[in-house]
## 1
Amino acid sequence: MTSIPATLPEMMTAIAITAPGGPHVLAPEQRRLPVAQAGEILIKVAAAGVNRPDVLQRMGLYPAPKGASDLPGLEVSGWIADIGPGVTGHSIGDAVTALVAGGGYAQYVTVDARHALPIPAGLGMVEAAALPETFFTVWSNVFDRVGLKAGERFLVHGGTSGIGTTAIQLAKAFGAEVFTTVGNDAKAEACRALGADHAINYNTHDFVAEIARITGGEGVHVILDMVGGDYVERNWQAAAVEGRICQIANLNGPAEQINFNRLMIKRLVHTGSTLRPRDGAFKAAIAEALKANVWPLLESGAIRPVMDSTFPFEKASEAHQRMEDSGHIGKIVLTVS
């Protein structure tokens, strides 16, 4: 347990976006300490996860939702420093990990108390900071939204991303046959080590053709995609009859041409969602599902967050550059002093 000061400071250091642009626009600045409102807790931040939406926000392409902090940072770990009115089940000094709507790149952040979870036994603060964004996203989309079941074939693109490493482990733990796409053979091997049954290097193989070969032309039942662009049509080709595709990002932009006949003939469901703007009750329900279904797997060591690298808080720009270089395998985390 860390020492929570008896009197909280008035000011804190935060990493702000000084203007839309490259990693260099991230800079430390002094901010007033946020105050826990009704239903909220104040967390003294130990570590903060770095995610693709942080990069998009920094570039001016993903504004914070109304009412959220303008600071980047969607997940943190740390200790409860203060508790707002009406909060139960938490105590000052408790170690927690939490999903936040923004503001994670700071020494203190307020969060809806329902979105904070105890740190799983056996995990440190850095690993705990790597949990919320990807685990909330994967659980709500893969298991709740498109209903992946044991025995089904599951494809996630970008297998060595934070989302990818999480999805591979969870899908495998719940009995799916797991396919993924990656950019090189080293990443393919890393995905197989996490439990992927088939890791396809998209620079040397057409994933649609490979999936057809492996499945005898049947395809995969569930696809989680954050690529978009021409992958929309290719996902429909790779999907099984009555397959389900969930879109959570469009890193390659919108699909310019798609053949809806394929969607209709295969009776596919193509859905999508974004987590950040959803209401507090929705995220609270995900937190409860994770605590019941996934936290025991983390505590037993059956699954773990995959860690790529850590950077001191003040070097957030270097962490963003690491993410944009796309060489990372797993999560990038900032350590906060």
## 2
Amino acid sequence: MTTSLPPRAGRRCHNALNPLHSALYFSPDLDREFGALGLTDPTAVRLAARSAPLGAVGAGTVAATFYNYKWELLARHLPAVWETASPGTVLDARLRAVDATLRRLLGEETVTSPEMAEAAVLALRAAEACTRHARPLYAANADLPVPTEPHLAYWHAATLLREHRGDGHLTALLAAGLDPVEALASHTATGKGMAPRWVLGTRGWGRADWEAARERLRERGLLDADGELTENGVRLREELEETTDRLDTAPYEHLGAAGVERLTELGRGFLVAAAGAGAYPADLIGKG
């Protein structure tokens, strides 16, 4: 698809919006809200929070749509989690957690600011051009009502844009022949992905799985003996992002260059504030 946008404009916008969506998964407010429902296992909480828009699904559906989780980990929690709290109840608690998280990280002045309202309008406008076909996580979230408060509407729109891009990224991973652990290990090797400790602690894979995936990447000439990306590895990771960009052009083309630039500016401002307020673990990103 051709585009009139500057190179990587959509990717830059995604990188500004997506982390604020993701702050929910590190939030004590999420644990508190879900704990009140009887969900106390951290893995169960986060699996329920993201998969609830899909309905009372089991491990198979989540393995397919999340891509990089080990099925055995998912099966320990799904579909059993829905016996404790229904998807509708989980979604209500999720939105309460988002509200508390954004108010805590950004402050009341930002949450109620004209800039937040503007960002919500821009992000929702971009999401108008997202498509449902072959986009299960996006489509499920798109069926949810748009919250009325601007900060919640902004988070909802960021979620739509995140999942739309993410669904397309899975298509790119499949085309590149990267299995779930290979995808994680090669992303970590870029220095922009989660550190191995976080991957192994949250996705269900063991150290043996990780090392076996790294060895397969070496056999393909994508990692060197030290675990660094080779030239071919760097090229593959960039081709993955370029394919993802291409599959994710529509929302940003719909918003237009000026709108994308403004949304990126606003999103970065919110992200800097959230990061400064301790939204993310200090050791989350890295190769080690």
